[in-house]
Design goal:
By secondary structure, this protein is an alpha+beta fold. It has twelve helices and 29 strands. The strands form six sheets. Strands 7, 8, 9, 11, 12, 13, 15 and 16 form an eight-stranded antiparallel sheet that branches. Strands 2-3-1-4-5-6 form a six-stranded mixed sheet, with helices on both faces.
């Protein structure tokens, strides 16, 4: 086959990930003489009483060897007679889930190890879900430590049923379940005589023959995210990047997004050499026949159908120690584009064990959720299922510059026809708040001066607000709708109880002031309550709000 397979090993703590790959390399005679000699020497003072500790081939950090766990991602490059491989051996400890997600982002196949004595654990489910989130379609579930389970077929079949339930829950497309012993070498490179009841493939044989290319989603047309504008002198201006889909040839007419300008391809350089065409996966420099407004973050495309949007729905993995809260600002990096964005809504968090959807207003480290995000200008974007490169992103903290989340686009909000129209979500992102309307009725007994003072307190807190007192003949519903569309927090002093009820029941994001909850509310009480309802500045806490 002789092509490249990129795969990841993952699973719970101490399931034998490093040992499995180490034994595979050792049995396949893929080690240099000095590597084998160092392995035998280090194993004499290892944790296996002098027996070969295959995990030492991958766990190179001092802390990893001291604790007997994997901390950082270890990449191994090796080649057999039938295929070349890049393996990412990732940590199993929950604390290092972000390291595992980093390894999964590059892989085409996942080997998920399961301890035969323990079965499917929470971290096993989390890693399987993250791999699926990252677009991996081919899975090998290696049921390890079968030697400790007495090579019992009934134990393997029980775990096989757990895996089948997990496959159905996550919608995994292709799975193979293999019983192995990483320390003893059973079913890794050769079939084990101690598990003659197993008739499936051994691990290495499967890795050498699996066709992951046929499982990948077919992307339409040609597109290339621009990484760099190359201008060595005044006679040449080229756009550099990697062809992510399709092919391009000299003479083709491409479109530059987001500007929409079209131009003919004048010349193509592939790895610095002139070429008539370029195909998917190749690094290219494209020179156009006329000057167009293109810079890093733009996309050159032809018949791809890529969309543009300033808002979208995504599934994310939160990886920061600080909890995620609504209204939080980020730098969003998608493709080669980086720009400010804001979390506008958490639709639901996903329970790792059951897959159930949970209502949330915040996320903690290593939780997965479906959220809605907005950015400050339209970007070239499409669902991850259609276009992988333009459908995956990371979120970067604007203060620490740490990567705090990774995610994939599930649904796109604003389409290309609206690329020059500022949407409510874009305005909300720029205002750093969610629009909300609070209607006060005469029956609530809140004085006009108190409402005005509450609005003043909100302004002092940095909120973009407006106090609206409808005049006779006003179409109050239309006015409030426009104010909310501008991304504002609107306090409405309705002239009658019926008018207040009509506004609250007839418009989205509008609610009546709950006088029963705060019967003698002061201006500070109202301002604090509105801030809490919009979930703004919750990372600071109510005591730090400036009222």
């Amino acid at each position: 086959m002789n092509d490249l397979l990129k795969f990841i090993t993952c699973g719970s703590v101490d399931d034998g990930k490093s040992t499995l790959i180490g034994h595979l390399l050792y049995d396949s005679k893929l080690l240099y003489a000095d590597q084998e000699e160092a392995l035998l020497l280090d194993s004499k003072v290892g944790s296996r009483g002098g027996a070969i500790d295959y995990s030492l081939l991958l766990d190179g950090l001092m802390a990893e060897r001291e604790q007997g766990i994997t901390i950082d991602v270890a990449y191994r490059y090796f080649t057999t007679d039938r295929r070349s491989f890049i393996c990412a051996d990732t940590p199993g400890h929950e604390e290092y889930t972000r390291n595992m997600a980093c390894g999964a982002s590059f892989a085409d196949l996942a080997i998920i190890l399961i301890d035969a004595t323990k079965g499917v654990l929470t971290q096993t489910r989390r890693h399987a879900r993250i791999c699926a989130l990252m677009g991996i379609r081919a899975f090998v579930f290696a049921v390890n430590k079968m030697d400790l389970a007495g090579y019992a077929e009934d134990r393997f079949r029980s775990i096989e049923q757990e895996i089948a339930a997990l496959q159905q829950e996550l919608g995994l497309e292709s799975i193979v379940v293999i019983p192995v012993s990483a320390t003893e070498g059973d079913n890794i490179t050769e079939r084990s005589a101690r598990m003659d009841w197993y008739e499936g493939p051994v691990l290495l044989d499967y890795l050498e023959t699996v066709d992951v290319a046929s499982m990948a989603a077919a992307e339409e047309g040609f597109y290339m995210p621009v990484q760099r504008v190359c201008r060595p002198d005044h006679t040449f201006r080229g756009f550099q990047g990697q062809v992510e889909s399709g092919s391009i040839a000299v003479g083709d007419t491409v479109r530059a997004l987001p500007s929409g300008e079209q131009a003919e391809v004048k010349s193509i350089l592939v790895a610095g050499q002139p070429a008539e065409q370029a195909a998917q996966g190749q690094p290219v420099t494209i020179q156009l026949a006329r000057e167009v407004d293109v810079s890093r973050g733009c996309v050159l495309e032809l018949d791809s159908g890529l969309q543009q949007s300033d808002s979208f729905r995504a599934e994310i993995l939160w990886m920061d120690d600080v909890p995620l809260t609504l209204g939080k600002n980020f730098l969003l990096k998608l493709g080669t584009k980086k720009l400010p964005g804001v979390l506008t809504r958490i639709d639901y968090a996903i329970d790792i064990n059951t897959g159930a959807h949970e209502e949330r207003t915040t996320l903690t480290k290593n939780e997965i959720a479906v959220c809605e995000l907005a950015v400050t200008e339209p970007i070239v974007i499409d669902p991850f299922a259609h276009y992988r490169t333009q459908g995956e992103f990371i979120l970067i903290d604007r203060i620490s510059h740490n990567t705090v989340a990774c995610g994939v686009v599930r649904e796109v909000g604003t389409a290309g026809a609206r690329q020059y129209a500022a949407s409510p979500s874009m305005r909300a992102a720029l205002n750093w708040q969610q629009p909300l309307g609070i209607v006060f009725a005469p029956a609530d007994g809140v004085a006009s001066d108190t409402i005005a003072a509450a609005e003043y307190g909100l302004v002092r807190s940095g909120r973009h607000t407006y106090l609206y007192r409808p005049a006779a003949g006003d179409d109050a519903a239309a006015v409030v709708r426009h104010l909310l569309g501008a991304g504002l927090v609107v306090l409405v002093e309705a002239p009658t109880d019926d008018a207040a009820e009509a506004l609250a029941s007839g418009l989205d994001h509008v609610r009546r002031w709950d006088s029963a909850q705060l019967p003698a509310a002061t201006a500070d009480d109202i301002a604090r309550s509105v801030l809490q309802m919009t979930m703004l500045n919750t990372a600071l806490g109510p005591d730090n709000w400036v009222i």
